User: Fold this.
Amino acid sequence: MGGPGWPHRVVLVAVRVARCAVLDVEDLARYRAEEAAGRPARITE
Assistant:
């Protein structure tokens, strides 16, 4: 890896990926809960 700043860049990318994964899991959980409650499930962008 080149450059003195690469560890910081790797950390930023890892945090961004983790945050996206958490949001996906929360959206899926909300979708499942609404589906289980019998309400029309809706996906909000």
Residues 8-36 form one domain. The chain has a mean pLDDT of 84.
